[in-house]
Amino acid sequence: MDWVRLRLDVDAFDEKEFEPYLQRALTSGIWFTPMTDTPDNRRALYELNKTCSADIPERGEFYSYESYVAERIEVPSFTPEGIIVALDGDTWIGMSATSLHPEGRAFSEMTGVLRPYRGRGLSLALKLLAIRFVRDQGCRWLDTIHHPRNDSAISMNRRLGFIDLP
Fold it and tell me: What's this model's pTM, rounded to 2 decimal places?
């Protein structure tokens, strides 16, 4: 399968065009915050990621909780501050997970919002907050990979200025 590989030049990214979307999301009653690494939050992140990932074409079976922690959290590239969570009260409704890598590179692992909350610009807001995180960490590049039929994620990233990599 030919995965869609995308890259954003964080230094060249101008968020002004997207600021109204972020402001609308921030005033909608949804709260955005970096994740605090606790056992309860690890479980909440896992459950949210598992639910949102079910909509990825041909995703297949999701990790067990133990595998998720071992392969996605207890790794050198994991940074809790790179996990931006959208909350409706105490309910985790969206996430954007970004990992940090050598040579000024970051990777957008997953951005997702629960179905009842979609269509409100929350994914875009989460991605903008993730880009800010990447910029604050001094990374130049933000990469991501998508299944070729994951049209909504691909178009959102391209709209933000991500370009296709060979």
Answer: 0.93
